[in-house]
Amino acid sequence: MSFTAEVKDELSRVEATSRAAELAQLSALVRICGTLSFHGSGRYSIRVATETGAVARTVIKLTHKLFDLETSLTVRRSVLHKTRNYLIEMPVQEGLDADLVRLGILTPGRGLTSGIPAALVSAPGALAAYVRGAFMAGGFIADPRGEFHLEIAVTGEDYASDLVRLVSALGASARLNRRRGAFAIYLKSYDDVSALLRGMGALRTARFVDVTRAKKSVKNDVNRRVNAEMANQARSSGAAVEQLELIDRAERELGLSALPPALREFCRARRANPELSLAALGELLDPPVSKSAMYHRVLRLQALVGEAEKNERP
């Protein structure tokens, strides 16, 4: 089972707090997953298609609980994709048009409702239930252990804009992306996704997301520290090699015994400890010498060697 399917299964087990909330959830499920067909003079039929068993179960359960409608369920298995396809059909029947009005899908005298009726989500718990139904119907969430985001795919710009406002009302910031004539309500921030999951009632998944985020944060911090240390070591190693070459030149041009005591001490310590950084090398001396003082010794040695090589040229 995919991570998205696991989340939808959890959401399917969240009990709505009222009949109004159940109506809102069913409205979102039918609106996003369903296809409405018009057969003339107030006669309609609906086909709801989904690849998620939890969504099919929820649609049938709420339809039978809220309305006295004839429904049929067909389950097909895709050999190519190795998935099940669920088709719920509500044929032309008495009262279906009135039920579609109650669901906020039809507006009397105007046809299909373009947005989300405010009255449908005004009762306590109805707004959260509507967003829950919308995610179950058209949502996707990536596994938080990888590249993380959440989105809900819908059609209709007015409808998409209204759904963004409902998501915002649950404490999550979402942006709206247009995709090939459709729209995606998109969330990428861990905080926003966690807030939306909690708002919809997916508390177990929200806790998993929070724990995974904390683990990734620790892992990333460790990786940054390790990378920084490796980079420092690489720089120190490169500097040490250059200093050893400088010491060899000083020995050829001047002789180490002719160098001032502080520079002789530096040359001896560097040859004995080629793996240490300049700061660590200074700590070995007696008395210890700061990194800045060690760096000045390198500069003094460079100047002496450079002057000797210059005087040697014809």
Q: For the report, how would you describe the main beta sheet?
A: 4 strands, antiparallel
Helix content, binned percent? 55-70%
Extract low-pLDDT stretches: none
Large-scale geometry: rod-shaped
Major β-sheet strand ordering: 1-2-4-3
Our measurement of the CA-to-CA distance between the termini, rounded to an integer number of angstroms, reads: 81 Å
Q: How much beta, percentage-wise? A: 15-25%
Number of helices: 11
Helix/strand-derived class? alpha+beta
Question: Whole-number average pLDDT?
Answer: 89
What string gives the helices and strands in order?
HHEEHEEHEEHEEHEEHHHHH
Number of strands: 10
Q: Radius of gyration over alpha carbons?
A: 35 Å
Compact description:
With 314 residues, the protein is α+β, with helices and mostly antiparallel strands. The chain has helices at residues 3-12, 19-33, 53-66, 96-102, 126-138, 157-169, 190-200, 203-253, 261-272, 278-284, 291-312; strands at 34-38, 44-50, 72-78, 83-90, 106-107, 111-112, 139-141, 150-154, 175-179, 182-187. A hairpin with a 4-residue loop joins strand 3 (72-78) and strand 4.
Structure description:
This protein has 11 helices and 10 strands. The chain is α+β, with helices and mostly antiparallel strands and 314 residues long. The strands form 3 sheets. The protein has a 4-stranded antiparallel beta sheet. A 4-stranded antiparallel beta sheet has the order 7-8-10-9. A hairpin with an 8-residue loop joins strand 7 (139-141) and strand 8 (150-154). It is rod-shaped. The mean pLDDT is 89.
